Amino acid sequence: MALSGVVCKDRGELRIHESLDELSTDLADYIAELSEASVKERGVFSIALSGGSLIGLMGKLSEAPYNRTVDWAKWYIFWADERVVAKNHTDSNYKLAKDGLLSKVPIIPSHVHSINDAVSAEEAASEYEFVIRQLVKARMVSVSEVSDCPKFDLILLGMGPDGHVASLFPNHAVLNEKSEWVTFITDSPKPPPERITFTLPVINSASNVAMVVAGEAKSEAVHLAIDNVEPDCSKLPARMVQPTTGKLVWFLDKGAASKLDGDQFSKS
Ligand SMILES: O=C1O[C@H](COP(=O)(O)O)[C@@H](O)[C@H](O)[C@H]1O
């Protein structure tokens, strides 16, 4: 059973699950509920995906009851980060999501906004930002009154064992990017090297951010991202995820949560 409804000061809500199966069900319920609420309020649901293990953990969305109950035609899909490779390349976050989810549910193809993979990382980032600007103008994506950034209904992030989120890696200069919505890197420490990524101001402007992390190999980074630790860790990318007005929820399995102190939690 999940340890849920636990709020860790300003580090968001923690949902710690006994098994990956339980985590996946809770994640599917959470996404389906946010989708329903956004469609009711705004008529659409803008969601940004990541790559990696996240997509497998979202797999239940393509099964009953979600495949029938979710209003897929109202979804507008983006990527919080993407590797600059062809769309049919095994490293492509688009391909991962297409094979694992998007091809299995009735999404409208024109609502799927992936990068142009035929240009440089720099051009791909700038074109992707332009696309998002058009959709903000058309109100498919809301705008944050605080930051003027797009306000996605939901941004889903994974986290690497080094604490990276999207393609924001520890000690990288793009962590300081304040003016651009989408930026690029050509020196990713994790292959492939060329990537585009949402910047921190965009991530922190979302209405909801979910951090989905599983496995003991990530437990130290989870501890540094959530617990009260030395000030040095304030620069860990995962710790820099702090939605300004939105809600942050951590979906963890027991392994990922195994190094959390636990003594700083308070019931919500
Ligand atoms: O390279 C990436 O890694 C992170 C984490 O991946 P995971 O497999 O360890 O969960 C992912 O969130 C990001 O989108 C991806 O480009």
Briefly say what this structure is.
Belongs to the glucosamine/galactosamine-6-phosphate isomerase family. 6-phosphogluconolactonase subfamily. With 268 residues, this protein is of the alpha/beta class. The chain is 26% helix and 20% strand.
Describe this structure in words.
- There is one protein chain.
- This protein is α/β, with parallel strands linked by helices and 268 residues long.
- It has a single domain, classed as Rossmann fold (3-Layer(aba) Sandwich).
- Helix content is 26%, strand content 20%.
- The protein contains seven helices and 13 strands.
- The protein has helices spanning 20-42, 53-57, 66-69, 93-100, 121-137, 200-203, 219-226, and strands at 3-7, 13-17, 45-49, 75-79, 81-83, 142-143, 150-151, 154-157, 182-185, 195-198, 208-213, 247-253, 266-267.
- The strands form three sheets. It has an eight-stranded mixed β-sheet with strand order 4-3-8-11-12-2-1-13. A three-stranded antiparallel β-sheet has the order 5-10-9. It has a two-stranded antiparallel ribbon with strand order 6-7.
- The longest helix has 23 residues, at 20-42.
- It is globular and about 45 Å long.
- 44% of the residues are buried.
- Bound molecules: the ligand O=C1O[C@H](COP(=O)(O)O)[C@@H](O)[C@H](O)[C@H]1O.
- The ligand O=C1O[C@H](COP(=O)(O)O)[C@@H](O)[C@H](O)[C@H]1O binds next to α2.
